[in-house]
Design goal:
The complex is a heterodimer of chains A (114) and B (112).
Chain A lengths: L4 E3 L2 E4 L5 E6 L6 E8 L3 E9 L2 E4 L8 E7 L2 E6 L8 E8 L8 E2 L3 E5 L1
Parallel strand pairs in A: 2-11
Antiparallel strand pairs in A: 1-3, 3-8, 4-5, 4-9, 5-6, 7-8, 9-10, 9-11
Chain B lengths: L3 E4 L2 E5 L4 E7 L4 E9 L6 E6 L5 E4 L2 E6 L4 E6 L8 E9 L6 E2 L3 E6 L1
Parallel strand pairs in B: 2-11
Antiparallel strand pairs in B: 1-3, 3-8, 4-5, 4-9, 6-7, 7-8, 9-10, 9-11
The chains are: A mainly beta (114), B mainly beta (112).
Chain lengths: 114, 112
Amino acid sequence: DAGVIQSPRHEVTEMGQEVTLRCKPISGHDYLFWYRQTMMRGLELLIYFNNNVPIDDSGMPEDRFSAKMPNASFSTLKIQPSEPRDSAVYFCASSRTFSNSPLHFGNGTRLTVT
Amino acid sequence: QQQVKQSPQSLIVQKGGISIINCAYENTAFDYFPWYQQFPGKGPALLIAIRPDVSEKKEGRFTISFNKSAKQFSLHIMDSQPGDSATYFCAASGNAGNMLTFGGGTRLMVKP
């Protein structure tokens, strides 16, 4: 299994631009999570999906952030417009079930907004 | 309150020594306590996890100790090796689920 695949690995953009982060979960995993990691706030859950349906988006910081999962093998996290404070490492993770099942993380996308 | 507090922020241990990282939580509804290991440029990887029905769980050189009354849990790495140098995160959740609240992380360096 290739694990959770995220792209791009690095993204540098200017303030005000739209940014799209992509994730391919492990096949057969019904749950997909987006986390954000910063020095100040550590690892924070942004949103999670079950069977492609968003279940809890209470961690999404503001309306500039949106996430979609059009099918079981693909999810996107979009920031529009981006701001310097959005600079962080964004992780996608997946698990077979919500509980009693390990959470597998991708290697993240390092976003820098100048 | 969903917070999980982790200490120390950084730790230096000699090869062969014991590394100890501590976490405390506030939400009594938490019932799943995993530890994750993260190497630079990689995502966190599950190391070991415990449920509150046991006070200790051991897997190889890694042991979790859990104190339900004190709402604290800790990771012990026995015979620490340079390859263990990484950042370690404790986490907690309710319903034993993967909606995890993470601690702030501990950067461990094991000196040869």
